[in-house]
Amino acid sequence: MDNAVRDGAAEGGAAEGFGTARAEAWVRAIATAVEKEQDRLTELDSAIGDGDHGSNLRRGFAAVLTALDGLDPAGPGALLNRTGTTLISKVGGASGPLYGKAFRAIGAALPDTALPDTALPDTALPDAAALGEALAAGLDAIRALGKAEPGDKTIVDAYTPAVAAYRAAVAAGAGLPGAASAAAAAAEQGARDTVPLQARKGRASYLGPRSIGHQDPGATSTALIFRALAEVTAA
Ligand code: ADP
Ligand code: MG
């Protein structure tokens, strides 16, 4: 039985939990988005960096898809952990270790044992709150490694509001689809809000005030990652 059937996502997305199938669908949706938006990410990185953000992520997620093909049946934790490890080993730019550590932390916060090969009840899968804590652990990992504060014009500027919006939605009673969609909208707003900022971390910081007026590529790819999550959890 494949992962989609196993955690119920195959039945029109009726399951509320974040099991192996959704984790895999998320990673595949990110790979698709990165492929589609590669040129835009590269353009943004050409303006305030070295123009490799699109190709870095495209190469990284292509390698992730290959790594997942060779992965034995695994829980969402192991799958996302493998995603992170692959990004760390395949992406040379700053974004590889940062996203790599984030996915490893998200994976570490989710069940990492293979789920039984039967359709599990929703209650056996990580729920919206559990995924929210895992996503927050991903942000902590990015901040621990990159030492960026909100306002430094980085990934953190999209990821921080995404986690806040996700948590607020869960607190207000939202399930996975509502929380993920709130997070995606907040990440997109956070990415747009990097335009007037001056970069204080990463390559763009070398430009000083000349980094002002451009949207940050990493914040933009973070918005793609949260939009992909909203797509695959949509009821
Ligand atoms: P590189 O800068 O090494 O060429 P990429 O182009 O792949 O790597 O990624 C650039 C993005 O990485 C930036 O747009 C920024 O969002 C993000 N970034 C750089 N440094 C940091 C940091 N210290 N913390 C968080 N994000 C960072
Ligand atoms: Mg770059």
Query: Any low-confidence stretches, pLDDT <50, length ≥5?
Result: 1-14
Give the fraction of residues assigned to helices: 55-70%
CATH-derived topology:
Serine Threonine Protein Phosphatase 5, Tetratricopeptide repeat
Q: What's the number of structural domains?
A: 1
**Main pleated-sheet profile:** none
Rounded radius of gyration (Å) = 17 Å
Structural class category? mainly alpha
Number of extended strands: 0
Number of helices: 10
Indicate the CATH class.
Mainly Alpha
Strand content: under 5%
Q: How does CATH name the architecture?
A: Alpha Horseshoe
The bound ligands are: adenosine-5'-diphosphate, magnesium ion
CATH superfamily: DhaL domain
What is the molecular shape?
globular
Which whole number gives the mean pLDDT?
Answer: 90
The arrangement of helices and strands along the chain is HHHHHHHHHH
Distance between the termini: 22 Å
